[in-house]
Amino acid sequence: MSLYHEAAEVFAVASKDGGSIKSIVFSKKKWKSDGRTLFALTTETAKWSDVLSKVIENSGVLKVEKQLSPQLALLLVHDLLLAPRGLALTPKHGLAASITKHKARLSAELTKERLRRGFASIDALRSHVNGSAGDVRSGLYRHPRWIRINTLRTSLAAQLETTFASFKPTSAMTDIMTCSPADKLVHTDQHVPNLLAVPPGVDITSHQAYKDGKLIIQDKASCFPAYLLDPSSTVGDIIDACAAPGNKTTHLAALTSSGADQQTSPSRKRKIFACERDAERSKTLSKMVRLAGADSVVQVRTRQDFLKVSPQAAEFANVTAILLDPSCSGSGIVGRDEAVLNLHLPAVDTENGTKTTHRKRKHEMAEAETKQLATDDTSENVPLEGEAAGTKLQDRLAALSSFQLRLLEHAMTFHAVARIAYSTCSLHDEENEQVVAKALLSDVAVERGWKILRREQQVDGMQAWSKRGRVEAVAAVMNADTTEEIDADVVAEACIRCEKGGEDGTMGFFVAGFMRDVEARNGGVQPSKKGAAVSATLHNGTDLQNGDEEEWEGFSDQE
C-alpha cells in the first residue's frame, strides 16, 4: 500500500536532509495518499519512535523480515500495536503478513519497554509520549496559535465580538499554552497591536473570517519586523526585500494603511514593493496579498532578486524604509526540528550482532548540531553528514551570515531610505548581533550615517519587550575590527531576541532596526571606492535569498 511506503519515504527524507515532517508532507510533491492521513501517521509514529525502535530491535523482526526497512517497520509496528483501527491494510497484504506474524513478540517487547521506563499502563506511557506544555526538547512543546487581525478587512473589536465571541479572555499566556482547545481561551497581546493567541489545537482555518482574509496565522515574533520598522515614522514607499509568503508584507500594508500613517502622508498613496526571486513562491505571495486585500498597496515583483534592484532606479527614488528578512538557518522555528529530535530508527541485526544503522549512528553523533538546522530553499541547505556536522554547521552559518550582510549593506545604499528592519528566525549570534555589528562598522554605514535604532527610539511595544541582544556577540565583532568602534552595550540593548519555546509562546527570533539622521540622509554622501565595490558585488545575485517562512499556514486546511 502506498501509504506506508510514502510515509517511509518521508522519514528517509527527514533523516537525510532535516526539516519538519509537515514541510516534507505538504510540499510540492504529489503523494498518492491523502496528505492529512500521511501527516498524521508520520507525526504520531515519530512521537513513539524512541519507544518503538527499542521494541523492534529487541524483537529481532528486522533480522527475519529482510524486505522491511527500519522506516517501514517503525510505521507498521506503530499501527499494529497502537493505532485504534490497527493496520490500514487487508490481512492478506504482504506488508500486513510480514508484521502481524510477529505481533505476540512485539506486544511482549512493548510491555517490557513500558515497565523498564516505569509506567504501570499503556495509557500512562501514552500520556508521557504525548508530553506536557513547554517540553520543547521532546518536540512536543505546546506552541500557541497566534492570529493577527488583518485591519485591512476588519478590526480587533469586530473579531472579538464575532469569531471569538464564545472565547473566554485571559491575560496569562500560561493559560493558553496549557489548556485544552475545548476551553476556548483567547489572549490579546500586549506588545503587538491587533494580535491574539489561542490554544494550539484550535482550528481557525475553518472559520469564514480566516477564509475571507480577515485573520492571518502569524507567529508573534514574526510580527516584530514590520511593527519595529514603524511605517508611520517615514513618509515614502517601502521595500519588502524577501517577501514570500507574505505575512510580513501584508502586515506592512495594514500598518501603512492605518489612520496614523495616512495622517503622516495624506497627499500621496504609499507603495510597498514586495520582491521575491522564486517563481513559485511569488505565486503564493501574490495570492496572499490578494486575499488580505493588500493588492491596492502592494506591488509584487515576481522573480525579483533584491540584490539586483538598483538603488538608483527612478521607481525606487521615494523608498524610505526597507524590511529585510533574509534566508537563515531557521534554528528558531518551533516544529522545524521535530523530525530530527523525535525520529529514532531501529537498529538492524547483522551476523556480528546488533549494529546501529549507518544513518542512525550518524544522526546520534550529530544530533546536538543538527537540531539547530532546518531545510530551506537556499543552495546552502547542505545535509549534515555524521562527524562533519559541526563543520557543516559553521560553514553554513558563515555562508548565510555573509549573504545576510551583503543584503543589509545593499539596503543601506538606497539614497532616500531612512529606516531598515533586519530579522532572522535564527538563534545563532553569527546571523544576528554579529551581522548587525558588522553592518554598523561597514564603510557604507559609516559614510551614509547609519546608526542602530536604540531601544528608547523604538515603538512602545518593542521598547517594552524585555529580551534583548547579547553584548558578547557584538563585542566579538568589535574585537576583530579595530578600524571603527561602536558601543556594544547600546547595540545589544537595541537588538530584540525571542526565546524558542519559552514562557512568551514565541518562536526563536531576532530583529534589529537601523536609522539615518536627516542630515546624513539628505547630504547625498557618496560611497567610498570600497563601498562602491561592495555595492557592485551585491548586484551579482545569489541563490541564498529565498528561505522558508514556516510560520505562514494560509491557503490550506491541513491543520
UniProtKB/TrEMBL annotation:
Family: Belongs to the class I-like SAM-binding methyltransferase superfamily. RsmB/NOP family.
Cellular component aspect of the GO annotation: nucleolus
Name used for this protein in its record: S-adenosyl-L-methionine-dependent methyltransferase
Matches recorded under Pfam families: Methyltr_RsmB-F (PF01189), NSUN5_fdxn-like (PF21148), NSUN5_N (PF21153)
Keyword entries, A-Z: Methyltransferase, RNA-binding, S-adenosyl-L-methionine, Transferase
GO biological process terms held by the UniProt record: rRNA base methylation
Residues annotated as the enzyme's active site: C425
Biased segments, Acidic residues type: 546-559
A GO MF term: RNA methyltransferase activity
Annotated positions binding S-adenosyl-L-methionine: C242, A243, A244, P245, G246, N247, K248, E276, D305, D325
Residue ranges constituting the SAM-dependent MTase RsmB/NOP-type domain according to the UniProt record: 135-517
Disordered: region residues: 525-559
Domain of life: Eukaryota
